[in-house]
Write a structure and sequence with these properties.
Number of strands: 25
Radius of gyration: 21 Å
Largest sheet: 7 strands, mixed
Shape: globular
Length: 471
C-alpha cells in the first residue's frame, strides 16, 4: 500500500488524498487516508502517486531486448514505451548494413525477418517496461523495394501491405512512416495509401513523421491528414514542430489544421519538451541550421559532443563540407522557438514522447529527461498547465489513443503501473552537457504491481511485458 500521498489519477481531474492498495499486479483499492489495509506499507507523505508514464514516441526497439543497459526510461517514471516510430522498426528486416536512419538503432540488431519473431524476442526478454510495438514503413520498404530512389510498383506495394497485415496479426499496434528520410523520400502519396490500406477496419495506429517540418510543413501535414483519413486509421502526427527561424510561429497554422481535421477524423499528436531536435546528420540541413551539436560520427568518433561550427573552423572548411566529412553520424539541431514548443505542448490533443535515441554516443537530454521536464520546468516553473493536465498528457491520453485498456488511469481494477514523485522537486537531471544524468524527485516506479525502481535503484528489471492490441 502507498499511504499518505495525493492521487493524480491520469484523467485530468483534480488530485485528492488517498491510500492506494496494490494486489496481484492490479490496483485493489483506493481508500480515504488511513483506511487502506495491506501487508506492506510504503509511507509517501508529501508525494504524488499517479499512473506510470507512457512514452508515446520512443526508439527503444533494441533497448527492450537488452536489460543490461542503463534504464533511461524507468528512471524517469516511464512504465510503457511505444516502439517502431518514424518508419524505423527492427522487423521485418534482416540485414548487416542498415542504411541511415535505420542505423540509429545500431547496426547489429536487424535480425528479425518477421514481426512475429521480434514479438517473441520481447516476450522472452521480459523487459523492465511494457512495450507497445509498431512496424515501420522504411524497414518494410528496404526489404521489398530494390530501388529506393523511386516510388514502389503495384506489386511492391502489395508486398509491403502484406507485411503490415502480417505484423498486425502478430501483435503490432499499427504502422509508422518516415517519408522525410532518404530511404522513403521517393514514396509518393499513392504508395502510402496502398501500404496503409492494411490498416482499414482494424482500429490501428498510423504514426507519421511527416515529409517536411520546415518550409513545406503545411503540404506535408496535409498529406498526412489525407492518408490518415483515407486509411481510416487512428492518426498520430509524430513529434510535431516547425523548424527554422523563418517558420517560427507557424504552429498556429498547423494546430488549426489539426483541429479542423479532428472534426471529421481520428487525429492527435505528440511532442518532446525541447527546442532542439536530434536525428541523423544531414549535411545540407546542418549547414542551414548553423547551431548543431554532433552526437556521434563513424569516421570521427572524437567529434561527439562538439559543435559543427567549431569543427569546421578547426578544419578550415565550410559547415556543409564539415558535416559531410562527419557522416554517417548523428546531430542535435537547435532550430525551434520556445513559443512554438509551448504552443504544441499545451494543445489538448498533445501526448508526450521522448523521441530519445538510446544508442547515440552522446544522446539528446530528452532520452533521460523528457517526462520530469514536463512536470518540473513546464508545469511547476513555467505554469504552462496544471500538474494534473501534465500527467494526463503522459498517462490517460496516450492510453486512450493507443487502446491500452486498463492502463493510464489510476482506478480500481487497472494494472498497477504507478509512479511516486515529489511535486516540489521533480525535474530533469539531464542537460546537453551531461545528457545521461537521471531525473530528480522520483521515489518509486511500479510496473505491473512490482517495485521496479526505488530511490533510483533498479529492483526488478523484468517487470514489464509486451502489450497486445485490443480487438
Amino acid at each position: 500500500m502507498l499511504r499518505g500521498g495525493e492521487v493524480i489519477d491520469g484523467s485530468g481531474a483534480v488530485r485528492f488524498a488517498a491510500d492506494v492498495v496494490v494486489e496481484q499486479g492490479r490496483i485493489a483499492a483506493i481508500t480515504p487516508p488511513g483506511e487502506g489495509r495491506a501487508d506492506r506499507i510504503l509511507q509517501i507523505d508529501g508525494r504524488v502517486v499517479c499512473p506510470g508514464f507512457i512514452d508515446s514516441h520512443s526508439h527503444d526497439d533494441v533497448q527492450v531486448l537488452r536489460q543490461t543497459l542503463a534504464q533511461p526510461k524507468l528512471s524517469q517514471g516511464v512504465c510503457t514505451v511505444v516502439t517502431g516510430n518514424c518508419g524505423i522498426s527492427l522487423p521485418p528486416l534482416a540485414t548487416d548494413s542498415p542504411p541511415a536512419p535505420l542505423d540509429i538503432l545500431g547496426k547489429d540488431a536487424y535480425r528479425f525477418s518477421r514481426f512475429a519473431d521480434y514479438a517473441r524476442a520481447i516476450d522472452e526478454a521480459r523487459p523492465c517496461v511494457n512495450v507497445v510495438p509498431l512496424v515501420g514503413h522504411i524497414s518494410i520498404r528496404i526489404k521489398h523495394v530494390p530501388d529506393l530512389t523511386r516510388s514502389a510498383s503495384e506489386g511492391e506495394t502489395r508486398a509491403m501491405r502484406g507485411e503490415v497485415e502480417a505484423a498486425l496479426a502478430a501483435g503490432a499496434f499499427g504502422l509508422s512512416t518516415g517519408v522525410y528520410y532518404p530511404p522513403a523520400r521517393a514514396a509518393n502519396t499513392e504508395e502510402l495509401l496502398g501500404v496503409c490500406a492494411a490498416l482499414k477496419g482494424r482500429n490501428a495506429i498510423l504514426a507519421m513523421h511527416i515529409r517536411d517540418e520546415a518550409d513545406a510543413v503545411v503540404p506535408a501535414l496535409q498529406e498526412a491528414l489525407f492518408v490518415g483519413a483515407r486509411s481510416q486509421a487512428r492518426l498520430v502526427i509524430s513529434h510535431h514542430k516547425v523548424m527554422g527561424s523563418a517558420n517560427h510561429g507557424r504552429t498556429q497554422d498547423t494546430l488549426r489544421m489539426i483541429d479542423a481535421a479532428a472534426s471529421t477524423q481520428d487525429v492527435c499528436l505528440d511532442c518532446y519538451p525541447y527546442e532542439a531536435s536530434s536525428t541523423m546528420l544531414d549535411a545540407q540541413k546542418a549547414a542551414r541550421t548553423g547551431n548543431v551539436l554532433i552526437t556521434w560520427s563513424s569516421p570521427h568518433p572524437l567529434a561527439s559532443g562538439r559543435t559543427l561550427k567549431s569543427l569546421a573552423q578547426e578544419w578550415g572548411i565550410g559547415l556543409e563540407e564539415a558535416a559531410a566529412k562527419l557522416m554517417p553520424g548523428g546531430a542535435i539541431y537547435f532550430s525551434m522557438s520556445q513559443q512554438d514548443v509551448e504552443r504544441v505542448l499545451s494543445h489538448p490533443a498533445t501526448m508526450i514522447g521522448s523521441d530519445g535515441l538510446p544508442h547515440d554516443q552522446r544522446p539528446h537530454p530528452r532520452l533521460w529527461g523528457t517526462f520530469p521536464r514536463v512536470l518540473g520546468h513546464y508545469s511547476r516553473e513555467r505554469k504552462l498547465f496544471a500538474l494534473e493536465a501534465a500527467v494526463h498528457k503522459m498517462t490517460g491520453l496516450p492510453a486512450q489513443r493507443y487502446g491500452l485498456t486498463g492502463r493510464g488511469l489510476l482506478k480500481e481494477g487497472n494494472a498497477a503501473d504507478l509512479v511516486v514523485f515529489d511535486p516540489d522537486r521533480i525535474r530533469e537531471g539531464s542537460t546537453y552537457e551531461n545528457p545521461t544524468n537521471p531525473a530528480i524527485g522520483i521515489d518509486a516506479v511500479i510496473v505491473n504491481g512490482l517495485i521496479a525502481m526505488w530511490q533510483g535503484d533498479v529492483l526488478n528489471s523484468h517487470a514489464g511485458q509486451r502489450l497486445r492490441p485490443q480487438a
